[in-house]
Amino acid sequence: MSLRKNKFTKEDKFFMQLALNLASDRLGLTGENPSVGCVIVKNNEIISIGQTSLSGRPHAEYNAIKSCKKNLNGSKMYVSLEPCAHYGKTPPCTNIIINSKIKEVIFSIEDNDIRTKFKSIKIFNKKKIKTKYGLLKNVAQKIYKSYIYNKKKKLPFVTGKLAVSNDDFINSKKVKKITNDQSNNITHLLRYRNDSILISSKTLNNDNPKLNCRIAGLSKYSPKRIILDKNLSIRKTSFIFQTSKKNNTIIFYEKGSKKKIMQLINKGIKLVKLSTNNNNFFDLKLILKKIYTLGCRNLLVEGGKCLTGSFFKHMLFNQFYLFKTSNKLNKSAKLNVSTELNQLSFKYKKKSKLNTFTGNDVVYLYLK
Question: Which of the following is catalytic: 61, 82, 110, 340?
Fold first, then answer.
């Protein structure tokens, strides 16, 4: 179905931008469902707004309709993504929209879920509800790039991140943090925006990371922790083990003692047993497929030299953030990643400088 050449007013663009802002606000926080924003207008005034709930349900349209204190008869709805038209764990949003007597629905882009794609138009037309779409579609496509990828590939959208010195080292005996506080805040924002985070057991045992979001007020949105630990070498004294509970930690392993397995299970850790390949490594593509089946849609990889290099080699990152400081580590440094960064520059063609507010640090974004 090709896009209609609908005519939109300045007011239409204003209300749709608000819906898109509402959708963007909860990116990565709505589980398996896309983050959607909804604005309901009557007589050119906003009478209700809605967002997808943090659990993924109820949907934005339902929340906007149910929270509205005014008569919806004859109103207009702006939605960032096409309203769902299929029965899942809840009835389709098209049902409640029809029952509310809304007279017009404008959505930005179609839902590429085959159960819904363009079906809402046919449903609304039968009920004499005017429908338009394509408004601010370029903005919406950027917001939903991970969701579109999820539905198309049945894989999580993978973001990589690495902090390096000016001479391309990622570790130092003397310097604990390579980058500054502003860059660290961006890292925590990435953790907030992703529903899961992946590291190797080597990083776990060497660095004892927390892998949580430490921006004030956002810690409860910390991602699910996923560890590649083929021999179950995780230490019981580690922060990850001590803070594990049901549904917040997953470990992929190949073998381990019965005692260790029971200790991990008793902590609420989900164990997924997989065989390694001939090189004694996990198949990362298979790992990503398994992660997707476990409900993770936006994965942040905070790996070291080996894990990050493997993701580069197989081009498994959808986007990659490189934090580079102007400081050199010289003799105190270890783990040079010049080879891995050359792979990044060679394989990921699109590169942009993200900001200039990080002092001595520069942040680059690489895209496929």
Answer: 61
